[in-house]
């Protein structure tokens, strides 16, 4: 059993251990033997639980998402957007700078003296600085009014961070659907392989019956040859089904980060009792409009571009800031070589040849382009939800037919075999009945897993996965 915690075939080993020796039924040595044997059996059950425990879809999601490189890349981009937001917000804060240096000139800077009242000083020079000096200072600056340039840039960074977060959630949802598809592909291939084995067994049994009847002279050689051809075809189907199973397991193990040839045992999610109650189509459409991450991402991207355009436009408006500091210049000719200072600075760029205007227009047009893309995606999502909902309705309707068809196909095959053995039906009736039985079982399994995947597709389309 796939869902059992341990395998019952392990229990006889414990029973055999308890029966070893010539210990009498109620004797003291038997009581002494019970404790180590019990511990040994418990250890075997624990080991078997580790080996044979089936993997659920939730466990598969947890394992695959932790190691997926695409999701990790989206998460790193989300972190980068958060750093960009912090960078934009840092423009609100004062800036503190320290400056220091050393200056060396060829000669001492000096000024020529030309005072008409003192003609004897004509041509003389008066030094005002040393030929080498150290200088340094500390400056503090902060914006006072930027006409919305900083606030718009912060709003744009926040919208871009929200868009990155939505992209990460979208990536996670898409990966979950892809992993679920691979998970279901393994289950589908396992059932197809079992059906193929059953088909080979049924045709082999019929070949044995025809062989026996042929040897007794009751049927023509044509029946034997036709049955053997059918067996060869069934064996080819078996080979194809086994290969498809290995391919699906390899694809699933790739998601899990495991060796491609590792054995896979999964919890079967195709059972009827695991399908939740259906939702109304209009409700699903409304949910998709509110929760689909593609729409949230595009909305935030458009908002970010609009705010970036506003921030650029603010460059044409006055920018006011305050700065203060302390500076020192090594100069023996100065009465005071150090001083505190403070000032208010305004910058108003009146003309730049249309640079800022065109940059802002470019961002605004890009925002409109993203808005149009959002409207297109919204229409596609509405169609996707409707298609997924119809697919689920079809799968549910098929489920009501396939179980009955399987029962009828089994019964038809039994009747065809009895009629053939009695000489009341040709060999082709048995082969046709077996072909219909194979198709009925395949239809049943396809309906099971189509319904399971349709449910997940509908959850993804509605933004609930």
UniProtKB/TrEMBL annotation:
The chain crosses the membrane at residues 32-54. Residues 281-308 form a coiled coil. Its main location: membrane. Keywords: Cell outer membrane, Coiled coil, Membrane, Transmembrane, Transmembrane beta strand, Transmembrane helix, Transport. It comes from the Bacteria. The keyword Methyltransferase does not apply. Belongs to the outer membrane factor (OMF) (TC 1.B.17) family. This is TolC family protein. It comes from Undibacterium rivi.
